[in-house]
Amino acid sequence: MEKNGQIEIRVSGKIGNVDINPDNFDIREIISILENVDDLLYNGDKKNRPLISYDIQEGSVRNIFKTGIQYIVSFNAILGLITTTNSIDYLDLGTAKAIENLQELAKKKDFIFEINTSVKGTNSIRIDKNSDYRRSEVIWSEAEFYFYGKITNAGGKDKANIHLLTDEYGTVRIQTPITFLEHQEENILYKHLGIRAKGKQHSENGDIDFSNLDFIELIDYRPIYDENYLKSLRTKAKKSWLSNINADEWLRQIRGSYES
After folding, report:
1. Which among 26, 126, 116, 105 has a CA at the least distance from the CA of 64?
2. Is 81 exposed, middle or buried (0-12, 13-18, 19+ CB in 10 A)?
3. What is the pLDDT of residues 208-236, one digit of tens each?
């Protein structure tokens, strides 16, 4: 069995004039922390991630998370990177957004988060109302994307979105105008289609911010290999610009340019 390690997120602060403790720490705050720990430890598809167990202890409020030691060691390195650079710009998107969410909660509730691991000589960070762990806006720029896959969900009561199951990114959720879905004459559910969307992309490593993608248009997409269609394109090319090219002369020119 794989050896486990742990991450501790210690929360301190007050509710009114009373120091927070496990008995007065509201479940909504606990849920906020739990929702972000998954992204702190694991990026991408989480279907096959190992078990994360949870315990809450006194000492203000100590939130203890246990999982495979290799993930704890990796997270300890992330804490070290944050400490060294005093920035979260170099983190994977999911991890950076999780830190941002804790930063927002710290400012909103005047909480102090102290994060460390069970690794010997652990790195640690402190997030409070005076810290400012946020991604640099200049690194993220507006971009357009094309996603292709099968639509597995479409709709929503107040804010509609389309869920597109892709081979490359897993399920991508794209915010979509309700009016667009209302005027669809055919049911698009479970059909293979393309979607053009806009959002933000990291200007250095190319990461896409999948948390805020906006729909632009639907693209008819048929991922089927069509030999006859390819033959027709080749025939069309031969009858047009390729018909005026002498293959031997073209090869001599290419070879000459490389030799020179």
Report:
1. 116
2. middle
3. 989 889 999 998 876 666 677 677 777 76
In one letter, which amino acid is 237? A
**12: which strand partners?**
112
DSSP conformational letter for 117: E
- To the nearest 10°, report the CA torsion of 200, 91, 149, 45: -150
Confidence (pLDDT) at 1: 46
Q: Which two tokens stand for residue 140?
A: 């993220």
For residue 125, how many other CB atoms are within 10 A of its CB? 19
132-169 pLDDT tens trace:
999 887 678 899 999 999 999 998 877 899 999 999 89
Q: Which of 22, 6, 125 is nearest to 68 (CA)?
A: 6
Q: CA-CA distance, 147 to 89, in Å (whole number)?
A: 25
Amino acid at 84: T
Return the residue matching tokens 């742990």.
Answer: 6
Q: What is the pTM of this model?
A: 0.63
